[in-house]
Amino acid sequence: xxKLSFLIAIFCFxxxxxxxxxxxxxxxxxxxxxxxxxxxxxxxxLTLTLNGSDILRLTPxxxxxxxxxxxYGRIRIYPNPATDFSxxxxxxxxxxxxxxxxxxxxGRELARIxxxxxxxxxxxxxxxxxxxxxxxxxxxxxxKMTRQLIGNGKSSGSLSLTEFDNTVSQVDExxxxxxxxxxxxxxxxxFTAGDRLKFIATSVDYTLVKxxxxxxxxTITFNFISCRDGENNNYPVVEIGTQVWMAANxxxxxxxxxxxxxxxxxxxxxxxxxxxxxxxxxxxxVTYKAAYGGLYSWYALDATSNGGKNVCPTGWHVPTDxxxxxxxxxxxxxxxxxxxxxxxxxxxxALPNLAATDETGFAALPGGLRSWFNGSFSFIHTxxxxxxxxxxxxxxxxxxxxxxxxxxxxxxxxxxxxxxxxRCIRDL
Length: 428
Known about the structure:
This protein is mainly beta. It contains 6 helices and 28 strands.
């Protein structure tokens, strides 16, 4: 008993000294309200999507796991902490009768139910929660499992414990129904002080990326910016310092006046071209277009070569070499800027991609290149190459290169009939 009291005291101390933050969202211009917000915790890998009217509650990790695994099976409670109700999900180690009960911190029993727990488990609802620390117990003649539950509710009525179904499969459906009926849901996300969050907000078909390391409750305001190309595609955008960049690679097939950019698939034709051209990696738009965008010759970007046209959306342009340098300098210099621009994980980048942090929201992707020499494709998943608008001689132009698991952003040049990726930057 003294051991239990000691553990409870430690738990309460941790909870008392851990801060919970509530984040709300607002549109800062005519493109309101915010439709949805995708939240990515770049430190712990958690991702969830909220309605724009929802409240994101960042709940500190305190050593109480969402699931308890042992030789005694599994017991899970979520959300935890909970305001209105929680779902209790039980998978027993041995099928049979069991007593499920809820006690307060003083040991008083608040609710009890006896039920048969089969191999598929059971889902129950803990309702009318008040404020405090509660203990949920599942006990049979063969085992006992206990789990803590933190209540943030205001209910003064008697706590209730009711069954949903004889399997755990209904839980997601129940939570979905609750969310659809609520105009403003409170959504919990585990959070540790110092975690960096990536917010991807949409309004109609506009998308804006914001980065934040929350240290208090706040409202995050999204000033949506149009970035619509000549094919009517709209791109996510992100503010980095004084610049506003696309947060995805260009994939238009038209200039912004609606005229088509020539598509060249033949290798020898690509090698010999000195006019505007684009392609998809391996000439396979189904596999590569959505994630990696298109590959463009430098002539497609150059107003002299393309008749004064612009591949970027109206109000945007291909960045100059100086604008790329401004970006890398803002991030601490070329030696460290690369990792801050690179998308985390190995969904698009090859293993191990350990250097990437994506702390800017730029989410650079490794679209590879098409060679000027013979029109062949290479470096998909391992390298990204982005044109600048600045020439470096008659036949070459500057670009920027990122390589998997390396921190720098490299300043390189390439022949103008190479096929590289494009990121546009907003006009000042």
